[in-house]
């Protein structure tokens, strides 16, 4: 991982040098020399990283190199804080402190000396490489270390070896895979791929398939070869050829080994064409491995099949995109996990005492829940409990179940998960470890995660002008998903993957690895002493803090009281409501080099906050953010989402911000109109839904903005600017201005005078590339389809009070996939969807349209509609007759509608014929007519 850290520092220094940043005034030559020295050592680190497990001395060398890179970064950023901000006209107290030219010269001299010392340390470390056996040419050879060879031997699989442990939960999987391989009329797959995270049982399933009676009778010959991480192409080809040769003699084996590569691949292809062969490629990791092997496995003119197992979904998708089948293994449910454990840990069955047996059953069920459905974890736990005969021994394992699972040597969870981690490219290792910030089972917002990666400098620019950092970050994230290291949470047809999470055991590995690499420390205020908390934050680059609210006040007293300035800390995530205790003690003043500050709220806190939000008092309305934040000039990411802050004038000096999220739970939010004027790097701005701003809102360099959420409606042209809106201004941007990078735009009403209709066409027209648009508030009319971005995929309308049928315009939008009409967006009585309208629409939600009585859908309209939801449209008499022609409709939801409306949809009802083809009908909260509010 040190390689990735050094690479990141080199890239950031290069960026500063390229831009001739004023923050390097006086030391730019020394910084250039430092960058060159780091580049020289960078080429050695990959080999050194791979050898860390061989000896303590190599681990120490890598740790020293990592610390050198960190120290170099700290020195440069300290200098930027002191001198760079003076050149740019930044923070007032910094200006006063370094106004004297002599003082600036002294700072430059001191920094030059520090950089020189860092450079000397780098060359000293480089000269000591030979003591550890790390050489420059080792990278060219790429030879595996003795430890990786040992792991390879442990991971080697063979067709004839069937483990004794019972297989549970794979019955349906086995049936499906066997059918895909043998039923040639129904399925014509050339390749079947079994994919999933480490420990799910991919090899176990493949072995069951290989020995299945239907498979053995269907294929004339079969071959099994384990690829693993070190793929030797020639060994694989020879192994397959020998296995496909029935009872090969010594002469035949020798002949195979004497063939050239061309002869061998031609012979393999011929055998697979002439016979029905099954070739199992177990544990294939990379697309490059398949590309090196594929010459021997032609896809056409053959009845032979390939079965492969992989942790990388991308491998399965690349092998045969047209005729391949991807079978993704899932985690076991609670019932199957307990059944598997029972079959393995049989000692409790022989217990005669029913009370003791029941106690052991209780402990077993509790322990197996920790495995979270990962079969390997259940097997490791079962093997451990099989050696424990007494209740006391089971209780001991129960107390230490987490460490017991990870420390088993032969089948240790950590070793299996470490293989996936070690196979990651260096830049993805850092991104993966960053996920350790979040608690167990936490739904991580994908966009927010990528924005934090950006702020930390973990995303490297590709050099393409067309690819943004966000695009590259999304590629990073997708690769982690494809490698089965991250689990997908909520999905969106527009934004892709909305949320993700880590499996608990993967998270345990992630946190342990991050801590050992000095990358991240998790601090639970409930469990750590004051000294431990202070030491943790003082040493690491990143910290995540959680705990009960009653214990969090300690932080305000612990951290500011020390002389430690926490130069190391770059990211701070908190999982509680800390602002009350932090305002007084202002611990933020010690974190001047933070890049990420995220006040994350858990689902439990959000629910509690929602219950009490209407009890805001005077003190709550006056709550300001700690003024000390104005000194955090390196901050790139700041989220106050769902906090109780309302006044944020102290944020205006944060010129480096890329992401600012102010979506609080409070009703009124106050900030000055020039709040964002100096934030020249701002890319994502999330405002509260209702804001109070005095004067014209001044946006920063708008050419970089990609996201504007809850932007006040008064930036658009107001119908009557002389009535009550003078203080807000009537039009912010010149008519010819274009937001070329803007993708997400959500427009909201100002805090007052919500009765005026606004023309939003000029604003929407100035955003030619948006794919998400939300309009909240009364508007004059919808923009015509040729006036809006052709990329628009998601549109939400709320309280727009449209009097004309919006469908007449919306159905002409060529690429809209999700449409939400809610909360009096349309106040008319009739709605019409014409033939060939909405060609790409997948999801339609009609909610709280109180006047809607009749909805007509012509045949041929909405051909791709998958999901329809109708909520609280009290005057709507029936679903449209045209729904019977929407053949793709899979899910219909009816919520808070009259019982008479619902009765028409029941089997035998008047409208059942319209929706009988829909597989899923969900009805919630039906109300009788006389009970309707």
UniProtKB/TrEMBL annotation:
Pfam families: LRR_14, NB-ARC, Rx_N, WHD_DRP. Residues 171-347 form the NB-ARC domain. It comes from the Eukaryota. One of its GO terms (molecular function) is ADP binding. The keyword Nucleotide-binding applies. Keywords: Coiled coil, Nucleotide-binding, Plant defense, Repeat. Residues 568-898 form the Disease resistance R13L4/SHOC-2-like LRR domain. Residues 24-54 form a coiled coil. InterPro entries: Disease_R_plants, LRR_R13L4/SHOC2-like, NB-ARC, RX-like_CC, Rx_N, WHD_DRP. Residues 438-509 form the Disease resistance protein winged helix domain. One of its GO terms (biological process) is defense response to other organism. The keyword Repeat applies. Residues 5-92 form the Disease resistance N-terminal domain. PANTHER family: DISEASE RESISTANCE PROTEIN RP (PTHR23155), DISEASE RESISTANCE RPP8-LIKE PROTEIN 3-RELATED (PTHR23155:SF1185). This is Disease resistance protein At1g50180. It comes from Carya illinoinensis (Pecan). The lineage of its organism: Eukaryota, Viridiplantae, Streptophyta, Embryophyta, Tracheophyta.
């Amino acid at each position: 991982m040190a390689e990735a850290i050094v690479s990141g520092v080199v890239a950031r220094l290069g960026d500063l040098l390229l831009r001739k940043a004023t923050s390097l005034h006086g030391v730019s030559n020394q910084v250039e020399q430092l960058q060159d020295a780091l580049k020289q050592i960078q080429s050695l680190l990959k080999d050194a990283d791979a050898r860390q497990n061989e000896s303590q001395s190599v681990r120490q060398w890598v740790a020293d190199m990592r610390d050198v890179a960190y120290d170099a970064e700290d020195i440069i950023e300290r200098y930027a804080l002191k001198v760079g901000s003076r050149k740019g006209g930044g923070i007032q107290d910094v200006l006063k402190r370094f106004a004297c030219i002599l003082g600036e010269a002294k700072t430059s001299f001191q920094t030059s000396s520090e950089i020189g010392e860092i450079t000397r340390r780098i060359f000293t470390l480089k000269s000591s490489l030979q003591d550890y056996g790390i050489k420059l040419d080792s990278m060219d050879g790429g030879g595996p270390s003795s430890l990786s060879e040992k792991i390879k031997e442990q991971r080697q699989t063979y067709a004839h070896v069937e483990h004794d442990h019972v297989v549970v939960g794979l019955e349906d999987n086995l049936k499906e895979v066997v059918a895909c391989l043998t039923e040639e009329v129904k399925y014509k797959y050339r390749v079947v791929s079994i994919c999933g995270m480490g420990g799910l049982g991919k090899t176990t399933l493949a072995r069951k398939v290989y020995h299945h009676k239907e498979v053995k009778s269907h294929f004339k010959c079969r071959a099994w070869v384990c690829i693993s991480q070190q793929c030797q192409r020639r060994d694989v080809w020879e192994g397959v050829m020998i296995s496909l040769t029935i009872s090969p003699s010594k002469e035949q084996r020798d002949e195979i080994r004497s063939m050239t590569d061309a002869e061998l691949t031609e012979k393999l292809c011929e055998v697979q064409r002439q016979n029905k062969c099954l070739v199992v490629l177990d544990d294939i990791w990379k697309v490059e491995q398949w590309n090196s092997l594929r010459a021997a496995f032609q896809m056409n003119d053959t009845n032979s099949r390939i079965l492969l197992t992989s942790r990388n979904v991308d491998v399965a998708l690349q092998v045969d995109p047209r005729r391949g089948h991807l079978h993704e293994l899932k985690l076991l449910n609670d019932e199957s996990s307990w059944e598997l454990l029972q079959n393995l840990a049989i000692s409790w069955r022989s217990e005669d005492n029913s009370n003791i047996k029941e106690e052991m059953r209780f402990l077993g069920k509790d322990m197996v829940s920790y495995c979270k459905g990962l079969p390997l974890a259940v097997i490791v736990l079962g093997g451990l409990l099989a050696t424990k005969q007494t209740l006391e021994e089971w209780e001991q394992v129960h107390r230490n179940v987490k460490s017991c699972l990870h420390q088993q040597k032969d089948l240790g969870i950590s070793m299996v998960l470490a293989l996936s981690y070690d196979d990651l490219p260096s830049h993805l290792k850092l991104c993966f470890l960053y996920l350790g910030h979040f608690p167990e089972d936490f739904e991580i917002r994908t966009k927010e995660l990528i924005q934090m990666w950006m702020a930390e400098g973990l995303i490297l620019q590709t050099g393409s002008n067309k690819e943004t950092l966000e695009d590259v970050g999304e590629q990073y994230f997708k690769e982690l998903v494809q490698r089965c290291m991250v689990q997908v949470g909520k999905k969106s047809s527009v934004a892709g993957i909305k949320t993700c999470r880590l499996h608990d055991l993967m998270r345990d590995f992630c946190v342990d690895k991050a801590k050992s690499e000095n990358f991240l420390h998790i601090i639970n205020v409930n469990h750590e002493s004051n000294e431990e908390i202070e030491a943790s934050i003082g040493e690491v680059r990143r910290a995540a803090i959680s705990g009960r609210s009653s214990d969090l006040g300690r932080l305000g007293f612990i951290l500011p009281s020390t002389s430690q300035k926490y130069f190391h800390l770059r990211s701070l995530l908190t999982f509680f409501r800390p602002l009350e205790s932090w305002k007084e003690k202002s611990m933020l003043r010690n974190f001047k080099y933070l890049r990420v500050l995220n006040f994350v709220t858990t689902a439990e806190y959000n629910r509690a906050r929602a219950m009490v939000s209407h009890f805001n008092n005077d003190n709550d309305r006056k709550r300001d953010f700690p003024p000390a934040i104005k000194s955090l000039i390196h901050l790139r990411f700041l989220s106050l989402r769902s906090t109780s802050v309302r006044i944020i004038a102290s944020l205006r000096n944060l010129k480096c911000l890329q992401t600012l999220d102010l979506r609080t739970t409070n009703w009124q939010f106050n900030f000055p109109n020039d709040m964002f004027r100096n934030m020249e790097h701002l890319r994502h701005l999330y405002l509260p839904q209702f804001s109070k701003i005095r004067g014209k809102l001044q946006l920063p360099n708008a050419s970089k903005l990609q996201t504007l959420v809850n932007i006040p409606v008064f930036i658009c042209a107001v119908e009557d600017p002389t009535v009550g809106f003078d203080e807000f201004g009537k039009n912010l941007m010149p008519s010819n201005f274009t937001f070329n990078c803007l993708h997400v735009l959500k427009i909201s009403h100002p805090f007052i005078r919500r009765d005026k209709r606004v023309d939003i066409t000029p604003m929407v027209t100035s955003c030619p590339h948006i794919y998400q648009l939300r309009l909240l508030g009364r508007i004059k009319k919808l923009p015509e389809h040729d006036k809006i971005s052709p990329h628009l995929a998601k549109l939400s309308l709320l309280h727009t009070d449209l009097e004309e049928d919006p469908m007449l315009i919306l159905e002409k939008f060529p690429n809209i996939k999700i449409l939400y009409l809610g909360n009096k967006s349309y106040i008319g009585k009739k709605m019409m969807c014409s033939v060939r309208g909405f060609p790409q629409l997948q999801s339609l939600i009609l909610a709280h349209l109180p006047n809607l009585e009749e909805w007509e859908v012509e045949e041929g309209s909405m051909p791709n509609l998958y999901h329809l939801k109708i909520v609280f449209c009290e005057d709507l008499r029936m679903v449209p007759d045209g729904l019977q022609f929407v053949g793709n409709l899979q899910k219909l939801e009816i919520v808070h509608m009259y019982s008479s409306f619902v009765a028409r949809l029941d089997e035998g009802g008047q409208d059942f014929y319209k929706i009988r083809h829909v597989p899923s009908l969900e009805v919630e909260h039906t109300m009788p007519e006389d009970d309707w509010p």
